[in-house]
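so ive been stuck on this for like two days lol. basically i have the seq below and the ligand is zinc ion, smiles is in there too. i just want the complex predicted, nothing fancy, no docking runs or whatever. if the output looks off dont worry ill sanity check it later, just need somthing to start from for the group meeting slides
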Amino acid sequence: MVDLVIRNALIRGYEGFCDIAVDGGRIVKVGRVRDKGEVEINAEGRLVTESFVNSHLHLCKAYTFLMIGEEALEFYHGENMGKAIYAVEAASKIKEKYHEDWIYENSKKAVLEALKHGCTYIRAFVDTDTKAKLEGVKAILRLREELKDYVVIQVVAFPQEGVLRDPGSEDYVWKAIEMGCDVVGGIPWIEYTEEDMVKHIEVMFTIAKHYDRDVAMLTDDAGDPMLRTTEMLAIKTIKEKWIGRVTACHARAMNLYTDHYFGRLIYILKNACISIVSDPHTGPLHARVKELLLNGVNVALGQDDVADAYYPYGRNKMLEVAFLASHILWMTRLRDMDMLYDMITKNGAKVMNLKNYGLREGGEASLVVLNAKSVYEAIWYQAEPCYVISRGKIVVENSEETKLYI
Ligand SMILES: [Zn+2]
């Protein structure tokens, strides 16, 4: 007898239907399972995969769009992102109202939404600077603890206003990591000079190395081909031997680089084993996802925003993110869809350095039983999963039925 058996599942990479046995939160068998399960699910030929991973989300800002208005949005989405820096300034006005209590409520709503759609791993960026202070950090750390049996939340201490531009924010990042944040953030492109951008990366690496933490920064998030912070971050990673522990999010200016420079950048990214998280639906420019993937760079997709100053929509639904990316990146062939699906599952897990992730014997039993019979159908319809399983326990069962009276 084991805790849970899923029968007649379609699994990526396997022929025919398989069973999955789960015990003690782990997958103990994939194949023909003779043991009985305390709980049994008949997948009836549906696709069962690892649960979804959202490796880039500004969680403290969720549902603030109507509180702040459209000014930032106009800057961020207009003029091919040439005025993105104004957007950060306009968006920061919300922080005058920052308070742990409402951030906690909004964030909880956003995380439960993610769970409903099958996402059980989130890397949450939380503003940590002289305006936001530690209000967001306190809220999200509380949430991480409260929901730890259902969702893995990695909290990134993120100095959104810059480090040199916002003296004092560095202290808040030190404090946030001391309080228990998992990852050291950064946004070097926001600084005034290239020298300051380099310094920004240096300061954040000092903290990461002191506490032995991974690093995740927002790089080159504007329409300026001269921005080079993705490269700066990769070079620092190599020099500090932080190989495989660093992620660059957005990296949108890459879209404007010459092929010569882009070729050199790929070489450096690969040497640093840097992952890129792209979110092509939240801005008119995006990283060159397909080329990066074809050249062996790990790329994941992130939700980025849920109804905030930079993007008015977002349901924390990774199948929706993949569907949007399919159009924006023109990845519409069946093999492209497999790549998209990887970007919201295992590639995201690599970003978050989730060691036990994977639908394999010994892997963590965090799974979705989809209401689809292929990756194609899953992305096409984005139907809610029939079941969401987190570490061996069923945490969501979606059984809503539409009645058609014709
Ligand atoms: Zn972002």
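The mean pLDDT is 96. The chain is about 35% helix and 20% strand.
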